């Protein structure tokens, strides 16, 4: 058994709304074998991984996996559960898994949930799967695999890959508010919200945090000056550059002092309550290893406190205690440290609520000063401090005292935050009692430091006292209650008409005065500006649009490939449109039938926001039925059907239930809600519809009108937008008509049987004759689909020029030409066929085959070469082709 490949689906996907990894497993010699074929396998596996006994599996209750193995189950399924259990053992709590057949004997896809904010495409999940495979195969070979060392290495990698405590809390708080959250790469940087409401936060530093305030907070002496000028209590102190100067300051202050790096952090190399010159010299040298400039200041007696200010509010306060252990009368100090570090709440750095205790030089010196060493056994209940300074980063603990903060202290801390100029700051205070009023002279109180981007863990998970949801306070500061974090979002999927419908919806919203971000198979746009040229119908392009702060509304083409390979690029849409579902992309990404396409494209309707709008084609039974899916109905969306006629049975039934629908009647586009109707505009006025003869364009217009109306665009503006949707300007390459001398030329991207049939029918209706076709088809479809599309070409055209695009999409040269010709002659043996070497030759041949006034249909793969060629040939745009020809 081996791992063939792995892919990540970062957004909602076909399996679950959360991120997953999909591992392709090849079982090799285990193909067709089950757990019951290997006596004693389960009995060896479960003692190694006892947690497997609690796995529910399909039974829905603990023990389900054990019963499945006892009955006999395949080893892809076993590997899924072993991976989940190994994940749990490193603290990576995920629960969803599924194993599905992947189209060949012994080939399975194992789908495994990933933490929402795990760094994208980290090696952790792959390492876990490979360890699971090794565990299963070694047990089958009669060996006991060693798990401790590899699990420890994976755990360390996971600690690096996941968000820090503060950032993770902010992400969770944002999601509780319904705010979209996206982690940016491997950083602790979060993007919150969409479009013009997008904000950024990095731990407790927001995109509104003052850079000047951060610089001031980082320079402890500058902080002291700012606070002193504001009349706030700070200990006296001086910056020194030598040990001799440090000793001089000790003498000048005349009492205990604190020595610390001027720009240090996390309590690193801070020495407190020093009275002996030799101690000061040693402390200076330690501090100078962090920063050349060292601050020596008066020691303020009292207790250490951290007060968190968000905006102009004190939201939490904690009393801090130095790292310490409590004796039990039996264990040594070193053993007590090991016992404390076994607490899963303690970790390295800042990845857990508490930091591991250490017995380094500082701790050993502190113990020695009290005539103690790591081998001493403290009495039962005796508290032994390991350091003087109280800091969580050095193993200290916190006690919540928020409810005890005196109003005087609250006012003092608000003044501190204002003086430094930070929207979120942690203020370090020393004072006897945080619940007591501030004396008139502020005696006994000292503001020790002001921290930009303060750690939140001491408030989120204090060692003692109540936890405080300070992350929610920061999110509320960024997005005050009642404010929006999203922009209106429309997503469009289907087989044909996606790009046109996206462009049309964007045009309608733009006419309504909104700055629209749009992604299509042609690229990413902001209004009329092309920002990124590519096939931009996947999640990366969606995120590009939603991350643009100029965007006021987003319209996203959501294609099959992006859904299958990466998931959706958003979490909830306001409006989801499904245009139609028919044969296309069969043979790609394990898609073998139209039913497979339905399952994929249904995701956009299933992931609609609660109470959103789902726009469905009532003329397509597969699409119309999506409204009845439990996963769609659970969202309680407004269903807006569209159809070519109001006599459609789905439409009639829907209107009887006071639903909303869009259809054509008596030559008009009509909006109906129950018994009320509103004529929007004449069909013939829809731009690009060839005077109303292009049925597919009318269907696109109905879908676009439904979406625009769902987002509040006035009916009059919808009518105006549909009239002004000039295909050459707004929809290049889709149903665009030109004239080259006496020959009308229609350029379209039809690339499947249904699309070719629709365009072929249109040309007959407009020009009254078959005309000529110059054809190329995408090579990444299966042979049967290519030939079916070619057959449809032959049904519509008696003269065809076949050419191959430069991008063969994995095909050999000449292969597509052969398949297309076979399809053409299969249904029309007398069809006249020419083969061309390239696009230019194909158009030239087609023009010679066409009689004056006969239409030419040009199908293409890439639009730019077509545009360049038409310009070279002097093609003139036709804006009203419905009046052309003899038909």
From TrEMBL:
Catalytic reactions on record: [L-4-(L-arginin-2-N-yl)aspartate](n)-L-aspartate + L-arginine + ATP = [L-4-(L-arginin-2-N-yl)aspartate](n+1) + ADP + phosphate + H(+); [L-4-(L-arginin-2-N-yl)aspartate](n) + L-aspartate + ATP = [L-4-(L-arginin-2-N-yl)aspartate](n)-L-aspartate + ADP + phosphate + H(+)
Enzyme Commission no: 6.3.2.29, 6.3.2.30
Nucleotide-binding is among the record's keywords: yes
Name the PROSITE patterns on file: ATP_GRASP, FOLYLPOLYGLU_SYNT_1
Molecular function as annotated in GO: ATP binding; cyanophycin synthetase activity (L-arginine-adding); cyanophycin synthetase activity (L-aspartate-adding); metal ion binding; tetrahydrofolylpolyglutamate synthase activity
Q: Which SUPFAM superfamilies match?
A: Glutathione synthetase ATP-binding domain-like (SSF56059), MurD-like peptide ligases, catalytic domain (SSF53623), MurD-like peptide ligases, peptide-binding domain (SSF53244)
- Which segments constitute the ATP-grasp domain? 224-479
Enzyme type, top EC level: ligase
Subunit annotation: Homodimer.
Q: What does this protein do?
A: Catalyzes the ATP-dependent polymerization of arginine and aspartate to multi-L-arginyl-poly-L-aspartic acid (cyanophycin; a water-insoluble reserve polymer).
Instruction: Name it.
Output: Cyanophycin synthetase
